[in-house]
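Lecture 7 notes: from sequence to structure.
We start with the chain below.
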Amino acid sequence: MTAVRKVAIAGTGVAGLATAIQLAKAGVEVDVFEAKPEPSALGSGISLQGNALRVFDALGAWDDIQHAGYPFEGLHLRAPGPGAPVVAELPDVKTGGPDYPAAMGMPRRELTRILLEHASAAGAHLRFGAPLTGLEQRPEGVEVFVNDESVGTYDLLVGADGLHSAVRELVGIETKPQPTGMGIWRAFVSRPAEVVRTELYYGGPVYIAGYTPTGEDTMYAFLVEDAQDRFGVSDEEATRIMLEESRAYDGPWNDIRADLEGGARAHYTWFTQHVVPAPWNRGRVVIIGDAAHSCPPTIAQGAAQGLEDAHVLTELLTTKDAVDEALWAEFHARRIPRATAVVEASVQLGQWQLDHNRDADAGGLIFGIAQQMAQPA
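Predicted structure tokens for the same chain:
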């Protein structure tokens, strides 16, 4: 017996689709509502740590994920300037355990495609162009409104609708993502043969220059700078800025610049941070993933934390008899301290760079969080 029989989910990001897959596999009737008119994945590539891969295995999607991504071990640090010498080779903690790679890069579109296919195969109903516009809670459930029309009453509504969550606003949660002071340029480019893991360059004209392999022939490159109003620039200007800011970096950056000059597009976003204080639920409505917490990608745990939210929530919903205070108490105890630790560490790493703090123990902080994440959520 499950605690729910019929669930609505807002959002088709990793947290929403992971929730849909697990609940539908357990025989729950699942309706997923996505405001966008069609499947899409902003950005270029994504870095996934081992604890994210462990959740994909629980979903039954691991075989497809590993065939579509690029697994790797370790992290290289390079110096800016001629030759881009490797100055440190750092091992990774296998946060998913010995059965999974330490990390994996993959194109965001491929990840979205795979999860959508698994959600459909499990029996979840997917609706696009369906923004959630209202809800009414009653003792027996929550009535959900899409495009201002009722689509039915559900035992639970899961708001996995991202940073600018409509569900979060509809239930009156005021905590919202706040800028951290950093912005990032990203571009999806070809992978030189020498790039077999994430490599980071500290110093030079930006805080971090780096890249992560996402496939046999692809990777995504990024530059982290002070947050600026870059959102109105043309595609040509975006490419020009990324080209100019990357000229201090040698090695594989020469290939990246060739791709940018050949038409690869540059995208810009700001880093944000927030953690909604307990509780994440209001009655029979709960928020997870980026709706509940966000952080800079300085330790690449954002997607993993959303997946863990989904994994813990669905475990409880499919093993408990009721959606009650005991269920929510266990959910919050298992998720909020862990997500908070990731957000605080990610923000601290960025703040040390903003403050030009050369004495900070960044390696120790990263290793400590990785050890925590190696313990299942």
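Points to note: The chain has a mean pLDDT of 95. The radius of gyration is 21 Å.
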